[in-house]
Amino acid sequence: MSAALLASTAVLLDALLGEPRRWHPLVGFGRLAGWLEGRLYGPAGARPAVRRARGGLALAALVLPATAGAALLAALPGPIGAAASVALLYLTLGHRSLRQHAAAVAQALQRDDLPAARAQVGRMVSRDCAALDGPGIAGATVESVLENGNDAVFGALFWFALAGAPGAVAYRLVNTLDAMWGYRNARYRDFGWAAARLDDLLNYLPARLTATGYALLGRSRLALSCWRRQAPAWKSPNAGPVMASGAGALGVRLGGPASYGGQRQERPALGSGAPPDAHDIERALALVGRTVLLWLLGLWLLELLARQVPHA
């Protein structure tokens, strides 16, 4: 069945239903990952190479069986396999959830309720939020919207188009493990190395296609300029292009210093213009929404072109 039709159906389901409120597979996967980490992490004095091997083993043990299961379900004949593919892609998408979380921050800022806004943005980002002012809260939210547009939507769509439901499932699980283990601190620098590197690899093309979509649907020249000049300085090879292009597309300034775990980090500036406010959160959400439609249109056009090739 048409990959574009399956992807469009899954996106529509996510828009209508959002993430399951109970028994979400990714929540169960996260708990399983935490349990397996406790058993495979190893002794405190383990050598870095041993710790990396243990982390790689944990990654394989968590991702490979789930990916194989997705492949078996998607291979079921006829409508059953198609329905399974739609359901699996739907479960990997988080577009509506992203909109809901970011909109809650914007609404709190519009009410000048900074405590509520800090609480809401704290559900989206890993930085320290207790001392953030209004522009800091809005900036953190816009950064999360732009980056998670790739992680929670476009990456899954890319791998679904390329490898079907197993590709989307593998991508989302690796991305989840990177979010859990991909920190450059004493505990995860080695144990999370495999998850972080594999996530970088799987996101390389989706991130650049996402950045291209943001640029096409926003202030294109500024977005491309920011991508070219600023992304190389960002610590993540994939978040840099996505966030620099998105910030330029919106004409806002992101990045700058931020505190993580009580430690201040000096981050380069992204974009150009004034710091964002509540309205810019809504603009960022609209940019991601337009880019989703662009991606779906692209899938339909690619399928149409592919059908024409044998008759050329």
From TrEMBL:
GO molecular function: ABC-type vitamin B12 transporter activity; threonine-phosphate decarboxylase activity
Transferase keyword on record: no
Predominant place of localization: membrane
Domain of life, per lineage: Bacteria
Family: Belongs to the CobD/CbiB family.
Role noted for this protein: Converts cobyric acid to cobinamide by the addition of aminopropanol on the F carboxylic group.
Topology versus the membrane: Multi-pass membrane protein
Ligase keyword on record: no
Protein name: Cobalamin biosynthesis protein CobD
Gene Ontology biological process: cobalamin biosynthetic process
Pathway in which this enzyme or protein is active: Cofactor biosynthesis; adenosylcobalamin biosynthesis
Any GO CC annotation of this UniProt entry: plasma membrane
Organism from which the protein derives: Immundisolibacter cernigliae
Transmembrane segments: 58-91
Compartments it resides in: Cell membrane
Lineage, highest ranks first: Bacteria, Pseudomonadati, Pseudomonadota, Gammaproteobacteria, Immundisolibacterales
Keywords, sorted A to Z: Cell membrane, Cobalamin biosynthesis, Membrane, Transmembrane, Transmembrane helix
